Amino acid sequence: MNHDRRPIRLPRTDAAPVLRTDFTDLGGWARLLRALETPVAFEEGSQDVCDYDRALSYVIPIDKEKYRDLLPETVLAAAPDAGHDLPYDHLYLADAETFGSDDLPLLGIDIHVDEAGDEPWPRVKPFRVPALHVASVEINDSIANLFFREFHDSDWADFEVHVAGPGTAVYEEFRQMDQEDVDDN
């Protein structure tokens, strides 16, 4: 799809969207969704569910054909430096490079707009965030401990992440909470 010919509208979501742009690897999209749903902790050894979080608590995966082959330049054109009124200041693209790697690195794109009276801060170039690290980025951004753009030069190998995979007590507790949410609706 040629996005140069028609303007793209970025989604209205309450959280940073993860836009699927590559539709050649259905299994890759399923792996990405599982990774975003996986409970992760940033300290080793805890079995307390309160020490874990999931990226899906902070991002919204969007699987719509209209975002096929979406490029960072098109995203930036759709969210100009001034005046966009989106409720998020960054988003992620799930592209062919994402699905071609075991750690599923999403392409993060900074689209923040400086608030009136703030010191202008230039947008950083798009950068990769491994799927299991998205929760940490989003947690820190949500509490303004670190802004999204401050992860630009991160060496993800320096950040240890601990996964509560299927069969662990933490994973099963998250699964049970999900089922209770479904039952309540």
TrEMBL record:
A matching Pfam family: DUF6924
Location of the DUF6924 domain: 16-154
Domain of life the protein comes from: Bacteria
InterPro entries registered for this protein in UniProt: DUF6924
The protein's name: DUF6924 domain-containing protein
Organism: Streptomyces yunnanensis
Taxon lineage: Bacteria, Bacillati, Actinomycetota, Actinomycetes, Kitasatosporales
